[in-house]
């Protein structure tokens, strides 16, 4: 290092700060350089001292700049020149640019320090590198010089054998401060202004993930930033052509926003500040791209094997209730979901899509779901008249072998369905597929038997997942609203794409815990084989016709010996959370009307409760509960499902929840708003105004 500096005087140019040799620099002192000092002071805010120097290069630029201002030719336009069509006025000479020193430091990160100085050759330039760790370099005079980490040097000084791979990966270390001169700062301001003017019309930008936070992405598209990036990585650049107003990412973002919000193309055009036609083309391009490159990877009987469903997408509770000990049974839940559509002007199509069950026009996709909520396939949509009920749709799928469904299922596999698939049982049994379906009421009966009620509860304990899946895909509001007739050709593609998104980016609805599910399944199977002894006691002792004194359930004064339970204990009795949720609504109505619950003591630790139905106000149900000091022993209700002992009906759960838990809470919580207070009731009695009546004499 000393050999490099030997024979050199540390004299830098005041303008470019380069070291200069004695024969290539000029002093700035003296009367002859007064104009030069004034020029530097005026243009570069530099105040030279007596010992400052300027290099010949900068001095020649100064003189050329002065000569260009003095000797600018004046073009005289004569009549001859004006009439000459080939006359070209002489061009003005180019002015040499002078650069001021980098005297302004701003806290702006950068990967390359502009015009820094090499620690070896002392040259300046924009391509200097940062030494991330101690390394060996060589110069023209000496090799293997040890340079400390953090120094800057020219790339040509790198010694390959002394610079490790890890150091090479860190070579683009970011600076926290950038140095500017006057002209560079003006260029930076102009660049920022130009960028701001270019993007002044942009309102929602999907090209830059930093423009929207994770919550905004979730609200607009239903996906997080990471999920959106992953979705875009599935789409090749050739699938969607970039245009002047939209990119591939923007097309995907517009398409997801359309599905998530259900907004019209006009509103989307306002949000994204592009034309309505561009919105329509963007949605069309994105729809075709995801149909080809994304949906087939995460939806359809071809995308997942039967063995994968058994191992990864089957809840242990379902295997315990309906499978075998070898866990080799595939269990799927099948149901149709509804997509409401506009009333069509095509009368035949209008009749074919009118549902006598929902009393409106709709189309019906058929959902095939595992017991954890994973969507195996979505087939359809289908019409919704009497010739297209659930059973006929499923029969058509198997007869036509859509998506090779017959090869996917194996013998003794199980499908869980509702009562609407009763006409498909025979066909499924021909293929060796078992069917689990809720029981029907027998002729001239108003209540399910104990055995039928227990079997039905086993089915509903597994079948609820398909209803939750239908609610999950309806979170994309385009599928939840009334679909315009112009979008009917794409209703199936929209449903399948949303289902593929749920499979890829949503967690399972309930994967279950293996130990807890095995215990719960064994408990439910054991209870399903028992009889309801309390029902037999009510029938044998005629407790339903025995008279007594009814007492309102108003607080701690009623049924004082009823045991105290936690909500977890109540869920162990109901074997689910749905009945507990309904219990809160029943209690809310009871608090509003004290006559809602009425209780009668019909024996030691045996109560009879009379309560109104939540569907029909004129209909009441009677229920009996036996208990001891610490637990509930038995229950029976006269409602349709009240005889079962695998869980309880909502009437029994509401009474247990109120007597054993709610009334003992010191803080009852805020009461919900009564929506009926905001709506007028024409059945209220007429208010008579006596102010205009004549006084009696």
TrEMBL record:
Co-factor(s): a divalent metal cation
Listed Pfam families: DDE_Tnp_4 (PF13359)
Superkingdom of source: Eukaryota
GO molecular function, one term: metal ion binding
Swiss-Prot/TrEMBL keywords: Metal-binding
Domain DDE Tnp4: 334-503
PANTHER family to which the protein is assigned, alphabetical: THAP DOMAIN PROTEIN (PTHR23080)
This protein's name: DDE Tnp4 domain-containing protein
UniProt source species: Mytilus edulis (Blue mussel)
């Amino acid at each position: 290092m000393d050999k490099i500096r030997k024979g050199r005087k540390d004299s830098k140019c005041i303008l470019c700060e380069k070291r200069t040799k004695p024969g290539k620099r000029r002093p700035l002192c003296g009367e002859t350089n007064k104009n030069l000092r004034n020029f530097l002071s005026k243009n570069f805010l530099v105040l030279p001292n007596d010992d400052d120097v300027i290099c010949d290069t900068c001095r020649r630029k100064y003189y050329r700049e002065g000569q260009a201002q003095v000797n600018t030719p004046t073009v005289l336009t004569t009549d001859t020149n004006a009439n000459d069509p080939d006359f070209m006025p002489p061009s003005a000479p180019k002015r040499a640019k002078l650069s001021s020193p980098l005297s302004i430091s701003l806290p702006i990160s950068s990967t390359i320090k502009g015009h820094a100085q090499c620690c070896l050759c002392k040259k300046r330039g924009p391509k200097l590198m940062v030494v991330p760790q101690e390394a060996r370099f060589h110069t023209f005079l000496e090799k293997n010089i040890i340079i400390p980490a953090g120094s800057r040097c020219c790339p040509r000084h790198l010694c390959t054998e002394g610079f490790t791979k890890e150091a090479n990966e860190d070579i683009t270390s970011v600076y926290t401060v950038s140095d500017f001169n006057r002209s560079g700062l003006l260029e930076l301001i102009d660049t920022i202004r130009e960028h701001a003017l270019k993007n002044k019309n942009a309102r929602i930008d999907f090209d830059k993930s930093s423009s929207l936070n994770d919550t905004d992405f979730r609200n607009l598209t239903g996906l997080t930033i990471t999920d959106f990036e992953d979705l875009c990585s599935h789409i090749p650049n050739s699938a969607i052509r970039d245009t002047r107003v939209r990119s591939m990412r923007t097309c995907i973002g517009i398409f997801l926003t359309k599905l998530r919000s259900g907004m019209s193309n006009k509103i989307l055009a306002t949000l994204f500040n592009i034309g309505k036609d561009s919105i329509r083309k963007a949605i069309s391009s994105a729809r075709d791209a995801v149909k080809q490159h994304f949906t087939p990877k995460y939806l359809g009987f071809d995308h997942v094997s039967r063995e994968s469903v058994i191992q990864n997408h089957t809840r242990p509770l379902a295997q315990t209730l309906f499978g075998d000990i070898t866990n080799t049974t595939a269990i799927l839940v099948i149901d149709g979901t509804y997509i409401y559509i506009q009333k069509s002007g095509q009368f035949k199509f209008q009749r074919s899509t009118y549902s006598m069950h929902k009393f409106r026009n709709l189309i019906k996709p058929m959902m095939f779901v595992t017991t954890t909520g994973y969507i195996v396939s979505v087939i359809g949509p289908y019409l919704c008249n009497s010739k297209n009920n659930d059973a006929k749709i499923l029969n058509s799928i198997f007869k036509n072998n859509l998506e090779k469904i017959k090869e996917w299922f194996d013998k003794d596999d199980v499908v869980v369905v509702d009562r609407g698939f009763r006409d498909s049982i025979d066909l499924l049994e021909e293929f060796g597929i078992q069917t689990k379906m809720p029981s029907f009421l027998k002729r001239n009966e108003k209540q399910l038997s104990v055995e039928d009620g227990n079997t039905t509860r086993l089915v509903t304990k597994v079948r609820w997942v398909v209803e939750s899946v239908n609610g999950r895909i309806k979170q994309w509001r385009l599928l939840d609203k009334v679909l315009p007739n112009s979008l009917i050709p794409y209703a199936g593609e929209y449903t399948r794409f949303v289902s593929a998104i749920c499979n890829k980016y949503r967690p399972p609805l309930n994967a279950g815990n293996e130990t807890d599910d095995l215990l719960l399944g064994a408990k439910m199977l054991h209870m399903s084989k028992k009889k309801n002894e309390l029902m037999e006691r009510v029938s044998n002792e005629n407790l339903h016709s025995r008279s007594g004194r009814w007492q309102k359930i108003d607080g701690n004064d009623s049924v004082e010996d009823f045991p105290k339970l936690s909500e977890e204990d109540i869920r162990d009795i109901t074997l689910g959370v749905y009945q507990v949720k309904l219990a809160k609504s029943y209690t809310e109505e009871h608090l509003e009307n004290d006559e809602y619950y009425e209780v009668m003591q019909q024996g030691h630790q045996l109560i009879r409760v009379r309560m109104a139905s939540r569907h029909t106000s004129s209909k009441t149900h009677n229920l009996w509960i036996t208990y001891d000091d610490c637990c509930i022993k038995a229950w029976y209700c006269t409602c349709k499902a009240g005889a079962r002992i695998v869980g309880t009906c909502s009437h029994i759960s509401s009474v247990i929840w109120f007597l054993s838990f709610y009334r003992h809470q010191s803080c009852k919580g805020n009461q919900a708003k009564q929506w009926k207070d905001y709506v007028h009731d024409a059945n209220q009695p007429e208010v008579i105004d006596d102010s205009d009546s004549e006084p009696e004499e």
